[in-house]
């Protein structure tokens, strides 16, 4: 009696990342069928539509009417989306100081230096990075 191995589970977010990568590469709004084609047809169109709907609900993509359906566009580039996710996770924490301290303690020396450089440049009247959203907290404009 032979058993087939269980199907490999995709890591959380892998499908969303693939769909976003297809949208970023296209540079124009895509329908679910076009995203499916860009991904090589390896996902069912209904799966792609579900992923796009979830990304829309999360605020990661916008959608506009295209015929009887929708065409989807990413709201931010990859770096902007990562920054938004990091901020969202931080906003969920009651003890932001501890969360930030643990994050910083896990940085490589190069990343720590880059963060220091970015923080030094953010002082004064420095404008926030594109897609960074409004600044809140200490030092934010009223």
In the CATH hierarchy, what is the class of the largest domain?
A: Mainly Alpha
Beta-strand level of the residues, as a percent range? 5-15%
CATH superfamily of the largest domain: Winged helix-like DNA-binding domain superfamily/Winged helix DNA-binding domain
Q: How is the largest sheet built, in terms of strand order? A: 1-2
Any idea what the radius of gyration is? 20 Å
Helix content: 40-55%
Q: Give the helix/strand class.
A: mainly alpha
- Seen as an oligomer or otherwise, the chain set is single chain
Q: Helix segment count?
A: 6
Q: What low-confidence regions span 5 or more consecutive residues with pLDDT below 50?
A: 129-142
Please indicate the count of domains: 2
Number of strands: 2
Coarse shape: extended
Indicate the CATH architecture of the largest domain: Orthogonal Bundle
Give the CATH topology of the largest domain. Arc Repressor Mutant, subunit A
Mean pLDDT: 84
- Major beta-sheet overview: 2 strands, antiparallel
Instruction: Sketch the topology as an H/E string, one letter per element.
Output: HHHEEHHH
**Gap between N and C termini, in Å?**
70 Å
Question: Would you kindly provide a written description of the structure presented here, covering whatever features stand out?
Answer:
This protein has helices at 14-26, 32-38, 45-57, 78-91, 96-105, 109-121, and strands at residues 61-66, 69-74. It has 142 residues and is mainly alpha-helical. It folds into two domains: 14-74, Orthogonal Bundle (Arc Repressor Mutant, subunit A); 78-121. Strands 1-2 form a two-stranded antiparallel sheet. The longest helix has 14 residues, at 78-91. The radius of gyration is 20 Å and the shape is extended.
């Amino acid at each position: 009696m032979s058993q087939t191995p269980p199907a490999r589970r995709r890591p959380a977010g892998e499908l969303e990342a693939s769909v976003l990568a297809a949208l970023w590469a296209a540079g124009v709004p895509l329908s679910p069928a076009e995203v499916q084609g860009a991904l090589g047809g390896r996902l069912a169109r209904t799966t792609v539509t579900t992923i796009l709907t979830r990304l829309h609900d999360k605020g990661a993509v916008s959608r506009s009417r295209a015929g009887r359906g929708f065409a989807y566009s990413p709201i931010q580039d990859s770096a902007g989306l990562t920054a938004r996710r990091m901020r969202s996770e931080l906003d969920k924490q009651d003890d932001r100081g501890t969360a930030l301290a643990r994050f910083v303690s896990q940085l490589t020396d190069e990343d720590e230096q880059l963060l220091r450089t970015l923080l030094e440049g953010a002082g004064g009247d420095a404008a926030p990075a594109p897609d960074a959203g409004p600044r809140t907290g200490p030092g934010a404009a009223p």
